[in-house]
Amino acid sequence: MSVRELVVLGTSSAVPTPRRNHNGYFLRWDSHGVLFDPGEGTQRQMRLAGLSATDITRICLTHFHGDHALGLPGTIQRIARDKVAHPVRVTYPAQGREYWERLRHATPFHDTDVIVPQPVAGTGACPLGEHDLRLTALPLRHSVTAYGYRLAEPDGWRMLPDRLTEHGVTGPLIGALHRQGWVNAPDGHRVDLTDCALPRPGQTLAFVMDTAYCPQAVELARDADMLVIESTYLDSEEHLADPYGHLTARQAGRVAAEAGARTLVLTHISERYDADRDADFLAQAAAEFDGPITLAQDLDRIPLPPRSR
Questions:
Q1: What is the pairing mode between strands 182-184 and 293-295?
Q2: Planar angle of CA 285, 145, 123, nearest 5 degrees
Q3: How far is Cα 150 from Cα 212, in angstroms, rounded to an integer?
Q4: Number of structural domains in the chain
Q5: Residue 210 among known ligand-binding residues
Q6: Please, where are the H alpha helices in the chain?
Q7: Quick one: 247 and 289 in the same domain?
Q8: Which of these is catalytic: 67, 195, 274, 298?
Q9: Is 295 inside a domain boundary?
Q10: What is the mean pLDDT of residues 11-31?
Q11: How many CB atoms lie within 10 A of CB 110?
């Protein structure tokens, strides 16, 4: 049975707190394990979450600020130590190549050849990824070069059992119909996929970290089933958001609403806010977005919403 869930490893911004570790997010998507922005403490948080280095198939860095990248050396060294056999692609902004090289070889260790660098560059969409999970990167608006990511499952089909029965399509013929788009029924008549199935949109997750409000953030989140987005500040600190290249909770809600996202996950919370302000993050985001909202906490497991029918 496939599992699609976001495992939250850390939810603080620049400074960790007793209840919020530095950033870290692990997306389990069927056979894929995508680690986003491994900040300090990622190895420990993964262990607490029951995750291992062998679960990681891809690492995505939005940018090279320390709270998003200083856990990378330990993560790579753990991949080497545990003798992970499969390739692990690492996507990062190409303009930060010097930081990638420093982090990749931060200390001596018995290296591994499974790490596959995959830098992204440019001002347009950068398509990446496997055939069953398309990954796209878009530049955001931060104080250093930063990219957001969109993971999308290709659209598929939902078979209609009553229509299959009506056309006499059973057993192996169902698989053949799905694969090639048509079959000849036992009585000889042609059956097209559209006769027995309805289009089913693929699931999509958007990951938008450090950025001021910008059109690219909305584009990444367009019709996403889940938008994971930074919400560093509350309204009272809105004057800090744009100069530092960050969002408020209200602005994060606005991005979700304008994009038509289905669910919203707020994270990257400034260390200035204690637990008694959590409700304010939810309320201010809800003033703009009327869908389900989660204020992420360390070690949360947040399932992707069911596929649209």
A1: unpaired
A2: 90
A3: 18
A4: 2
A5: yes
A6: 42-48, 66-69, 72-81, 97-104, 161-167, 172-180, 193-196, 215-220, 238-244, 249-259, 278-286
A7: yes
A8: 67
A9: yes
A10: 96
A11: 8
Bridge partners, 93 (sequence order): 120
Taking the CA atoms of the chain, what radius of gyration do you get in angstroms? 21
Q: Is 142 annotated as a binding residue?
A: yes
Quote the domain boundaries for residue 89.
Answer: 4-155+201-303
Cα(first)–Cα(last) distance of the chain, in Å?
Answer: 19
Question: Which tens digits make up the pLDDT trace of 226-245?
Answer: 999 999 999 999 999 999 99
Judged by phi (left if over 0) then psi (alpha if -120 to 50, else beta), residue 83 lies in: left
Taking the C-alpha atoms of residue 300 and residue 298, their distance in angstroms, rounded to an integer, is 6
Q: Is 167 annotated as a binding residue?
A: no
Short-list 231, 177, 224, CA closest to 201: 224
Question: How is residue 159 written in tokens?
Answer: 């078979």
pLDDT of residue 1: 47
Is 67 annotated as catalytic? yes
Nearest-10 crossing angle of helices 97-104, 72-81: 50
